[in-house]
Design a protein that fits this description.
The structure is a homodimer.
Chain A (H helix, E strand, L loop, with lengths): L8 E8 L1 H4 L7 H12 L1 E9 L3 H14 L2 E5 L10 H9 L3 E3 L1 H11 L7 H4 L3 E3 L3 E3 L8 E4 L2 E4 L3 H11 L10 E7 L7 H10 L4 E9 L2 E10 L2 H17 L5 E2 L3
Parallel strand pairs in A: 1-2, 1-3, 3-8
Antiparallel strand pairs in A: 4-5, 6-7, 7-8, 9-11, 9-12, 10-11
Helix pairs in contact in A: 2-7, 3-4, 8-9
Chain lengths: ~250, ~250
């Protein structure tokens, strides 16, 4: 992508698992992935949460990989009957599931001192044909890369470590920067200021996130841009505007 | 839906907001909604996280309302320029945006002692034509119902209160029940037991959720069913199987 450094690189996330949709488990991977992608210069553009149902995983993966540079999945790559993500992604790509020889070796080593490699554990060496592995330094069973799809574990500490393994391997654009101003003011009092300030500084977005604390209303205003200079100018203008509106903005947010 | 009490009622959730996709804000509404829906006898079947971009909100709402009994949205119904959910949902339904007279009254009352109803605040009385209101006892600005789409605030304590306002108004089926057994055992040692136990009890699903704590591996096994009797039998069989596998299962999970 030489000569196109301003292009926005995007990723999507497919969170796979009944336990998320039942409310039993609070997803923690979306925000961790989003922050990690920001540093890689890649924007998390959309996410879907789907149940452990093959056709729904296939639909989500195929819709999202067609329109994003990267797709990440979390969950469903363990050893039990409800771990069907490998079969689903293989179906999405129209390829068979095979045992990856290197994954088998890794698992044999890992389980050598942990009771040996049984049939269930060998399931974790299954990959869509043509896939590569993503190293897992925590629990042996690797993540999987096929095409632009990166399959990671659902357990957050393993997922985070797989991101770490991928560090520096993904092509991206300019990192998205952000700076936050907080103020004890109702966002509805400064709506015009926000809109007009955003318009004045090209490529900046201003997000407004209200809160209620200690019986008072306030809001954090997040300025985002890929250009540090323009972002600083925009933050300065917003700071001055909030002062003029009678509040005392707090850099970094409240 | 008389005579069809076993039909599964489903809902989908569209989480609207750049702040979720940037990793700045951890969503808390999905799990709260999922748990609340379980009690209503409605299953959260899928969820999407979309940015503050009208066409993406429209696409998600239209895809999901066509194939679910209910769609919930969170976020983007405040007073600022980045709050575009009302416009997007109106576009999804192909109707104009109008001021709802009752919402205007509610906001006039709420802001009477809070600086009055300015133009930004009046934005929160805008609804897709034909919509009804969802009461908001926390901060005045109501949620919105149009067709099978329920638009709620993004701020979790307001969203939860809007669910409370909807209590008893949604038709559902049998509540999905669940019971958890925890064990200090690797899920890969009992994969066959889980698969076979699930097969033996019709309508039961068993989810397996591994964890690593205190240097040891364990897993929680969640049995779900709409039939309390069959679920109890399934849990009993799983309990006995885990004992036979050499572990001591803990009711309620670890």
């Amino acid at each position: 992508m030489a000569g196109n450094e301003n292009r926005i690189w995007t990723a999507a996330l497919v969170i796979i698992g009944d336990e998320i949709l039942s409310g039993r488990t609070q997803d923690a991977n979306l925000s961790a992935l989003a922050k990690w992608l920001n540093i890689q210069g890649i924007r998390l553009a959309e996410a879907r949460v789907v149940p452990d149902v093959q056709e729904q995983i296939v639909e989500a993966v195929n819709a999202l990989r067609a329109r994003n540079d990267y797709v990440f999945t979390t969950g469903g790559i363990g050893p039990t009957h409800d771990d069907i993500s490998v079969d689903a992604v293989a179906a999405a790509f129209g390829v068979p599931v095979v045992i990856h020889p290197r994954a088998r070796e890794v698992l044999e080593d890992y389980y050598a001192t942990r009771g040996g490699l049984n049939e269930a554990r060998l399931r974790m060496a299954r990959v869509p044909e043509g896939a590569e592995l993503i190293e897992n330094r925590v629990s042996g069973a690797p993540g999987i890369k096929i095409g632009n799809v990166y399959m990671m574990a659902g357990v957050p500490r393993i997922a985070v470590q797989m991101m770490d393994s991928l560090e520096g391997t993904l092509e991206g654009g300019l990192p998205l920067l952000s700076q936050t101003l907080g103020a004890w003011i109702a966002e509805s009092e400064v709506a015009d200021l926000l809109r007009e300030t955003e318009r004045r500084f090209e490529g900046c977005q201003i997000g407004s996130y209200p809160f209620f604390r200690e019986g008072r209303v306030g809001a954090n205003f997040v300025v985002r841009s890929t250009d540090a200079h323009v972002m600083a100018e925009c933050v300065k203008a917003l700071f001055d505007g909030l002062i003029a509106a009678g509040s005392q903005p707090v850099s970094g947010g409240i």
